[in-house]
Structure formats: C-alpha cells, structure tokens
Amino acid sequence: MNLHEYQAKALLRQYGFPLPNEILATTIEEVVEAYTQLSSQLGTHTAVVKAQIHAGGRGKAGGVRVVESLGEAREYASSLLGQSLVTPQTDEKGQPIHALLISENLYPVEKEFYLGATLDRENECITFMVSTEGGMEIEEVAKIMPDKIFKVALSPLVGMRVSHARNMGYHLGLNESQLNAFIKMVQGAYKAFIEHDLALLEINPLSVLRDGRLMTIDAKIAIDDNARFRQPHHVAEQDRSQENRYELMAAEYNLSYVSLGGNIGCMVNGAGLAMATMDIIQFYGATPANFLDVGGGATEKAVLAAFKLILSDPKVEAILVNIFGGIVRCDMIAEAIINAMEEGYITRPIVVRLAGNHAEDGLALIDRANLPIIVAEDLADAAQKVIEATGNTPMDNRTTGGQNGDLS
Q1: Domain spans, the chain
Q2: Which residues make Cβ contacts (< 8 Å) with residue 139, sequence separation at least 6?
Q3: Which pTM does this prediction carry?
Q4: Which of the residues are catalytic?
Q5: Residue range 1-20+108-243 in CATH 3.30.470.20
Q6: N or C, fewer C-beta in 10 Å, the chain?
Q7: Comparing 208 with 92, which gets the higher pLDDT?
C-alpha cells in the first residue's frame, strides 16, 4: 500500500527528518492561501507546486513546477487539480490529481543523494542503500552505474548500528556535521521501517543545501500489505483513487489479482499453477489478461467475484479456468461456474480444466448442465481451446525456437 508524498513526509517528521516548509492543498482557494502563507513566512515569491499521485516521474511529466507568482501558482494548480497525470510509471490513463503540495523552493542545492530501504527477501533482512546519484531513478543507477550504490544488509537480531549509518555517510562523502545529522536520520528511518511495517522507503533526493544542511526533498513509502491489520491508521488514509480498481475489487474477496493487459482471462488456484497457466497461454501465441489466484480455500462467492473481476476487463475475449483440487473441491468450482453462467455473469467463451479433488463429480455436473462450457483434458489442451475460442489459431512455439517438453 503506497502513501502519498505528503503522508510519507508526515510520517518521517515523527522520526526527526529535516523537511521543507510545505502546505497541502486540495482546492484552488487552498493553493492561493498556501502560496500566500509561504511567501509571507519565507519572504520569497517562488514556491514549488507538486502533484500528489502514487507514481514517480512527476517532474518529467509536468507534475512539478517552480512558480514565481500567485497568478502562476493559481494557473498551474488549475491545470492539475481534477486531471490525470501520465508518467513513465503509470498506464495510458494516468493517475488522478486530487491534492497538491505547495513547498518552499530550496534550489539550487549543492548535492543530491539517494537513501532507500527495502525488505530484502533473498537475504531475509532489511537492506539500506545510498548513492551519490540522487535525483535519478535507482533502477537506472543500478543499470548504468552499479558501483555508485552502496548497500548495507541489516541483521534483524542487530538492527541499525551507528557504524552502519556512519559507513553509509562516508560513502556519500559527508562532512562531520552532516554525518552526525545523517546518522540520526538513518536510525530514524530504520525505526520507522520496523514500527510501521514498511516494505519500501525512498528519499530521493536527499539534498545538501547551500548552507550545508541535509534536507528531505522528496519521499516515497510503501506499507507491507501483509501487515495491514497492524497498521489501521495507514489503511484508513489509503487513497483508493490511486489504486487499480480491479485489484481493489479482488482484495475485498481475498483474491490475488494482477492486471496484465492481455486477452485471455485466467482463474486458477495456486500461484505456481497460475504462473504455469500464463506461460502456456503465451507459449501457444496469446497473452494472459491477468494473474488471478482464488486460493486453496476458495468459496462459491469468491469464484463468482472472480468472474465479475475478470469480465470487468473489456480486453478479455475468453476465460480459462484451471483448477487442481486439493483443499478446494472441483465440484464446488463447477457449481459456481454453472451458477455464474445461468445468472448471466459469464458473457464470453469459457474453457474449464478440472483435476484432483472431486474432479469427476465436477465434470459430471458440467456435462449435465448442458451449457456452452468447453471442457479441456489437460493444460495444453485448455490453452489451445481457449485461444481457438477467441477466433485465433494456437501457435506451437516449439517449431519456432520455443521450449520443448511435455505440456500436458
């Protein structure tokens, strides 16, 4: 779950991070008031207006601007509020702008750094990263200048020691005064990471101002979704307008869903089977529309919700249901499919492959229902039949350099 920049900074302020003077505005009137207040307080006519969306690349996309008068602030804010901003990290529709952060202009600065922390699942710890290449996306730095990234993997039994923070500060070339401030900042970041169940924390850029002070210019925070029950305050402040509506719908029924933009809707139980299903769809020349795992404890209500979710995507031309019954019973899945068709939920071709727990009973139910449900014998058969149901011809990529092996 992502936080907006202003929410991330409010959290970091609790842990002693140095922050610019900033005021949140959600209307043109509030923008005018914020600009006027900052101008009076700071004795300057320049300010920075920043669109608040859950995506990076705002500056390049026109979502951040230095304004030099009240009129310019009002005009620029009017062009943003209520609109959507498309950045390299959004889809073609972009993300809606409902709030702007009006900030003091601290530029030009002396230096820009990157400070980040993430859950490192490979090493089973929290890893902190710093780089002298602040202002750049860390992925780009890793690609073209990997030697510019300094990492510290923190043992959960030890946590953040002063020596860890000092080593990161040395890598950035900070002087003694800056180093002391940086150590306090990094220790606060680690404490915030633990206490708020963060999955990601990025300060980019962390700037050195002309007077030598460190300043948090921008911040990004993501809360670990698995810890939502421990963070009700952050759940309550979630901006649902920034989230994928399909994924929000899935969360209501405890379904694991990721939109992929293809034409074959997938409903599968188990993440591994879902990945195999998507792979074989692509193997035969089509593209999956989604990753959807109904889980081992799926109920008929959840299956019906899954169909609604899949078919809410207009790109879906056909559906492949691939269930290997373990805890979940195939006859329950079959009944849910039949009920969904009889109630008019399923409006596009559907191919069903059932195996495992009560599979024979489920297939018998489908047979007796006498509905236009296409039954497949195995996974390869299912993939080919669902592609044929879209009016296309399956391709066998083994004849064009694809993978080999038994696909059944």
Answers
A1: 1-20+108-243, 21-105, 245-400
A2: none
A3: 0.76
A4: 114, 202
A5: yes
A6: C
A7: 208
